[in-house]
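Worked problem 6 (solution included).
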Amino acid sequence: KPVSLTGTKSHKKNRFAQSFNGRMREKCLNGHLFYRLRHACELIAAWRIDFNHYRPDKSLAGFTPAEYVNR
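Solution. The predicted structure is:
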């Protein structure tokens, strides 16, 4: 039986995680062929930095996180 890491009452956290996982799969994992674990780690790290710092976000009125903080 699988272990639930988010608990039974944290539906919002689970939706966020599922949304993020789908976005990562669509935008990063499906677009690359990983030759070695190190190669995968490097590409995923670069994608994560772009996703967290440079990608415009609708919840931030279309600003990137850095632009939102500095406005």
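Discussion: The radius of gyration is 15 Å.
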